[in-house]
Design brief:
Blueprint (H helix, E strand, L loop, with lengths): L1 H9 L4 H20 L5 E10 L3 E13 L3 E3 L5 H7 L2 H19 L9 E5 L2 H5 L3 H12 L6 E6 H4 L3 H13 L3 E7 L6 H4 L6 E4 L1 H5 L5 H17 L2 E5 L4 H9 L4 E3 L9 H17 L1
The structure holds ligand C2E and magnesium ion (MG) (3 copies).
One magnesium ion binds next to strand 6.
Organism: Alishewanella maricola
Protein name: EAL domain-containing protein
Length: 284
């Protein structure tokens, strides 16, 4: 029965859409097995504070597919969210990042680095989310004061009360919170003051043309002012050039993440980059 019905349904779609739908289904199937087959890895991107150096890293997931090669998160995170696979994937990410954090504790150049981990709404909505995070912290031996969870505006619009209470519990254990891609969602600024946030991340879309588009520069300035007034730190993402960094610095943003310093790197390459960076800073 399925075959005939399927054909009828698919007749209404364009051929390329059929292709993309079956590609999607195939991707879902592969995604289901990716953890067991150890196809995920984390890449680490430096966060640099002016006059201080590398103060943290953002952990970013990578999927190496046996046939399609490296698949960027933009091409599979939404599928993981829709299917619920983001729950096991998200746990794997948090566990891997926390193990990494714990392993740096005794290495002088690494010991003070914070790790930022992206978290999806689906993960946060689980009733036992707080317990899961605390269990991972305990099992890995990671210092919770060095862990930051990155949330996005869109996920905060619903269940605000529940999110605030979970954030408050996690904050009591030292875990920090960063609001990712800030300015791209439709945040109500009034709930921003209710959230126990620690950091705002200026989205890369405002950084890109900060030198040529006065609107982008005005938005960056607004976010920086907002962070100051709410007592939050602020970091800019997607910083690719010195000129962009200088423009941000002039507006009062002193923390940066972007290709200007480094792309997200596999762990060994990140550690090597960090050692080089620290050495060159000492020689300055
Ligand atoms: P995001 O959290 O906003 O991460 C920043 C993205 O900007 C990363 O893309 C990073 O590689 C890219 N980027 C950093 N610096 C520059 C730059 O100077 N120029 C340009 N053009 N791009 C830069 P990536 O790694 O492809 O990740 C995309 C998005 O996927 C992330 O955006 C995040 O929303 C999501 N994501 C990544 N890893 C995870 C994860 O473990 N869990 C969840 N739930 N989402 C994740
Ligand atoms: Mg992020
Ligand atoms: Mg972002
Ligand atoms: Mg983004």
């Amino acid at each position: 029965q399925a075959k005939g019905a399927g054909k009828n349904t698919l007749r209404f779609f364009e051929p390329q859409m059929q292709a993309s739908m079956s590609a999607r289904v195939a991707l879902q199937t592969d995604l289901r097995q990716a953890i067991y087959l150890k196809q995920f890895s984390l890449h680490y991107q430096a966060q640099v504070a002016e006059g201080i150096g590398i103060v943290g890293v953002e952990a970013l997931i990578r999927w190496t597919h046996p046939e399609h090669g490296l698949i960027p998160p933009a091409n599979f995170i939404h599928i993981a969210e829709e299917t619920g696979l983001i729950l096991p994937i998200g746990s794997w990410v948090l566990e891997t990042a926390c193990s990494q954090l714990a392993s740096w504790a005794n290495i002088p150049v690494m010991a003070d680095l914070s790790i930022s981990v992206n978290v999806s709404a689906r993960q946060f909505m689980q009733v036992d989310w707080v317990d899961q995070v605390l269990a991972i912290i305990k099992n890995t031996g990671a210092n919770p004061n060095l862990l930051k969870l990155e949330l996005t505006e869109s996920m905060l619009a619903q269940n605000t009360e529940d999110i605030i209470s979970k954030m408050t519990l996690l904050k009591a254990h030292g875990i920090g919170f960063s609001l990712d891609d800030f300015g791209t969602g439709y945040s109500s600024l009034s709930y921003l003051k209710l959230l126990p946030m620690d950091q705002l991340k200026i989205d890369s879309s405002f950084v890109r043309d900060i030198l040529i588009d006065p609107n982008d520069s005005a938005i960056a300035q607004m976010v920086i002012g907002l962070a100051k007034n709410l007592g939050l730190t602020v970091i800019a993402e997607g910083v690719e050039t010195e000129a962009q960094r200088n423009a941000l610095s002039k507006l009062g943003c002193y923390e940066y993440q972007g290709y200007l310093y480094s792309k997200p790197l596999p762990i060994r390459e990140f550690e090597a980059f960090l050692n080089r960076f620290e050495k060159s800073a000492l020689q300055e």
